[in-house]
Design brief:
With about 425 residues, this protein is α/β, with parallel strands linked by helices. It has 13 helices and 12 strands. The protein binds nicotinamide-adenine-dinucleotide.
Length: about 425
């Protein structure tokens, strides 16, 4: 975790600080006009509303909700809606900026949006969560739409939440509108492969990064922090390719088998919470020990800010692939750069999620379902295209993989702004 020692520089940047810092770093390599940069430093708009909820006991609670729109020069706003007590306007803006870069890097015709309700979903019954979601869909109607802004699940929200949201929106519109949100269950227009997609994309880019270094995946050891949706799918993908996944963890701790774990036998967080740290493995470790294992690949796939100035010098992995959003602080990032440990950035690695969300939206608006094999094939293509674009910048400009990814994204967004011009 980040240091609290005032002698150390503050490590935990806010999401908006990180997003702006990355924008400036990428801009230093490009000819983006100051006018465009000035627009990109800010959100286009932030919608703030209140969502009243009738609790099960008959009382009324009023929650604050935000929907931030960063930039839509390349297409409708896209991004999650989270239910979390720590949601703030600034956080929504920062996360919306990240979505702009992620969509642009993937060359998906969407812009960046993000939103949330300041609520602890653990305090709500299922019925309360449904009523809150339906009312939220109504309150957000002025700023969302299948061609305008398409929300998705995030922390505290899930496919069922999206189903209620889609139903409420559709009732008000008078027509079934599956394209209003992504991350729905397949039975109402969700896409096959959506759930596995972020972990799968982490696996695909790990494979590419190993190939780039002329390393054989079958002779690779991998440690994965966080065996949830992203971590478990990445681990299973890499084990299928022949890698030895030697350690995985959940919030309570890690399990370790130097000979390689059977990742299909360990149930993930959704399948059975607590199963990972309770699994009968040769050794158990703390999460901190997992991060510093002598492995070929480290995949932090749990939460942000776990790789810090405190532990970055201790990391022994030869390659880090960011499954979670923002797992490395900027101090850690600089240390990895000095130590020449490549870090494949989150905006590429876990972008399988938004990419298959885009596929879901395409299926919804064209009313045509894709098979799982088509989804996976198209995801593979999109990931390889984005990898190739990032690799070109990495080689031509001699920058980090992260900077290369942001340069690709900003170049695309900047060119789109230049081409469309500024409406007077
Ligand atoms: P999840 O809830 O399915 O799993 C998270 C896992 O991390 C669980 O095993 C949990 O026990 C563990 N964990 C939680 N806190 C931890 C801690 N402090 N230390 C160690 N382990 C901890 O979540 P997920 O959907 O897999 O998301 C993981 C990360 O990936 C998040 O940063 C999320 O924002 C990001 N992400 C998720 C998606 C997606 O669609 N699921 C897409 C892109 C990015």
């Amino acid at each position: 975790m980040a240091s609290t020692d005032p002698a150390h520089e503050p490590e935990e940047e806010t999401a908006v600080e990180t997003a702006r810092r990355q924008l400036e770093r990428a801009a230093a390599h490009l000819d983006v006009t100051e006018s465009t940069l000035e627009r990109l430093r800010r959100a286009t708009s932030v919608y703030r509303t209140t969502v009243p909820l009738e609790r099960d006991d008959g009382s009324t609670e009023v929650y604050t909700a935000y929907r931030a729109h960063h930039d839509d020069v390349r297409g409708p706003y896209k991004g999650g809606m989270r239910y979390h007590p720590g949601v703030t306007e600034q956080e929504c803006i920062g996360l919306a900026m990240w979505m702009t870069w992620k969509c642009a890097l993937m060359d998906i015709p969407f812009g960046g949006g993000k939103g949330g309700v300041v609520v602890d979903p653990k305090d709500l019954s299922t019925d309360e969560k449904e009523r809150l979601t339906r009312r939220l869909a109504q309150e957000l109607r002025p700023v969302i739409g299948p061609m305008k802004d398409i929300p998705a699940p995030d922390m505290g929200t899930d496919p069922q939440t999206m189903a209620w949201f889609m139903d409420a929106y559709s009732m008000q519109e008078g027509e079934t509108t599956p394209g209003i949100v992504t991350g729905k269950p397949p039975v109402i227009g969700g896409s096959y492969g959506r759930e596995e997609a972020p972990g799968r994309s982490v696996g695909i880019v790990t494979r590419k990064a190993l190939e780039y270094d002329d390393r054989d995946v079958t002779e690779t050891t991998v440690a994965v922090q966080g065996f949830g949706s992203v971590g478990a799918n990445a681990a299973r993908y890499l084990e299928d390719l022949g890698a030895d996944v030697v350690a995985v963890s959940d919030v309570d701790g890690a399990i370790y088998d130097p000979a390689g774990l059977d990742t299909n036998d360990v149930e993930d967080h959704d399948e059975r919470p607590g199963m990972v740290s309770g699994y009968d493995a040769p050794e158990s470790l703390t999460n901190e020990e997992l991060l510093t294992l002598d492995v070929d690949v480290l995949i932090p796939a749990a939460v942000g800010n776990v790789l810090t100035g405190e532990n970055a010098h201790e990391i022994q992995a030869d390659l880090i692939v960011e499954g979670a959003n923002g797992p490395a602080t900027s101090t850690a990032d600089r240390i990895f750069e000095d130590r020449e440990i490549p870090v494949i950035p989150d905006i590429l690695a876990n972008a399988g999620g938004v990419t298959v969300s885009y596929f879901e939206w395409l299926q919804d608006i064209s009313r045509r379902t894709w098979t799982l094999s088509r989804v996976n094939e198209e995801l593979e293509n999109e990931m390889l295209n984005a990898w190739a674009a990032m690799q070109t910048e990495y080689e031509n400009r001699d920058v980090t993989w992260r900077d290369a990814a942001y340069i690709v994204a900003l170049r695309r967004v900047g060119e789109a702004h230049d081409m469309r011009g500024l409406w007077p």
